[in-house]
Request: fold
Amino acid sequence: MTIRELGKRIRERHISCVEVMQQTIAAIKSGDKCNSIITATYDQALLTAAERDNELAAGHDRGPLHGIPIAHKDLLYTRGVKTTGGSLIYNHFVPDSDAVVVTKLYDAGAISIGKTNLHELAYGITSKNPHYGPVLNPHDTVRIPGGSSGGSAALVAAGLLPMATGTDTGGSIRIPAAYCGITGIKPTYGLVSKKGVLPLSYGLDHIGPLGSCVEDCALALQVMADQPADYNLAALPNLSGVRIGVPRHFFFDRIDTEVETAVRSRIDHFRQLGATVGEVDLPDFNGVTAAARIVQMAEAGALYIDYQDPAMFGRDVWANIQQGREILGHEYVNAQRLRSLYRQQFDQIWRTIDVIVSPTTPITAPLLTETSVQIKGQSEDVRLASTRLVRAWNFLGEPAMSLPCGQDSRGLPIGIQLVSPPFSDARLLQIANTMEHSLH
Reply:
């Protein structure tokens, strides 16, 4: 059930906030087969739900999120509730304050049921957490849900929550959204406060929502964003006047055939809705992606420079931290110089198009046991394949979102990625909302 549908039932007194919470908790206890939660806060959620009912009875409606159950990725500080980052080094960390985003959502009426499982320290895309157990994909529990926001995505995809918070440093909202068949948006860099969120890469981290539909993400971003705007614009009657750019190179160069067919079919649907669709030449995205990896590894390596015991980390995360420590100063500086150059190039590109459309990932969700995948006869590391089409947008800072785009022949979800100019998040969501409505 979406935020709007659930909110309507609450306001029409068909169900109370307490009853919503009781049903949600019961459904999670019986229906979450994906190991999605590290720390549950059910008792506090029920107390808050009773307060929300009293507020409505007194005529105080906090808005669309009033009484809506959500969850927070276990990177976000929650006062008095353990915040582990999915790691042993934060296993006993109990913040004495909430993250800014947590406070905003609470003040808007949302009720958190707990902290979601994730890839350790948000440093990976499988969500195979060695300390708290792997998160499983609700569409097929022998497959990964994507990461690092795997627990948040799994809860939403399983229909247990309409929305959960996530973070995205190199695709960690959009990859699980694609693999789990839901919607997720990485907002413009800096639009949502990172205060009170365990960092991975200060220059690449983004905070955003994962939701059951575009409107759920829009309603959440309406609250989460520091820049006031109406992020939940009504769907347009058509897409006349919207200029869609389809990358000529890189984004379709090596992807699964079924993924390409589904995404190109959706691009044709944009045309049918009246959009102007054409190919666009973009900067060298191999270079953009390589520079983005250098920045992330260097910043993450610096963040954990004082930790020397590999036993405190999962094997893959420790290897990534060690790689970051080996990056030289001039490599990091040159990567940042390239960032400025690419930023200038995109400022020119956005004068001619409104949205760039591509697959979110070149594949559907890999098996838990797979470390590499075959894409058109070529072997590729699971992590590198999963991040290949999404990482650069963290480096550039553009708002980027993943939407469901059908399924492959095995019934696994396919994601389509939409990207727009910086601080055009509201317009991006409106275009996505228009597409979503036209398919129903």
